[in-house]
Amino acid sequence: MTATATETTATEKTENAEKTGKAEKTENAEKTGKAEKTAAEKTGARTDEAAGVITGARERIDSLDDRIIGLIQERMAVSAVIQEARISSGGRRVNLSREMEVLDHYRQALGKPGTTLAMTLLELCRGRI
């Protein structure tokens, strides 16, 4: 082969590789139903600056959620200790007056949605024994 023929073959190989790579990306995006999105598209923001703020804030929320989940799991463990002690002493598994205090505490702190949150927490913490 001549130098020109070799160059042409190398160029064709490069072009084919690029086409194949693009085709694979397109095919993968079609399979997953997702094309790669920009930061603005992922966040719903209309500017890159706003997208950056939102991305940072979402990372903070994810971190807070992890901490909240950990605290809920800790609350469930402490509640299990209380229930075990109450049951082993001949008491009932659930202390309704205490649950009412918890509901009131959350309602006062967070309003009506706080009551719903407290009910969910109480439900998570009941009957794990």
Describe this structure in words.
This protein is mainly α and 129 residues long. Helix content is 81%, strand content 0%. The protein contains five helices and no strands. Helix 4 packs antiparallel against helix 5. The mean pLDDT is 83.
What are the main properties of this structure?
81% helix; elongated; mainly alpha; 129 residues
Could you give a quick summary of the protein structure above?
With 129 residues, the chain is mainly α. It has helices at residues 3-32, 39-43, 48-88, 96-110, 112-125.
Question: What is the count of β-strands?
Answer: 0
Question: Which geometry do the CA atoms define?
Answer: elongated
Residue share in helices? over 70%
First-last Cα distance: 80 Å
Oligomer: single chain
Unreliable spans:
none
Nearest-integer average pLDDT: 83
Radius of gyration, CA atoms, in whole angstroms = 29 Å
Number of helices: 5
Order of helices and strands: HHHHH
Structural class: mainly alpha
Largest sheet: none
How much beta, percentage-wise? under 5%
Task: Break the fold down into its secondary structure elements and pairings.
Layout (H helix, E strand, L loop, with lengths): L2 H30 L6 H5 L4 H41 L7 H15 L1 H14 L4
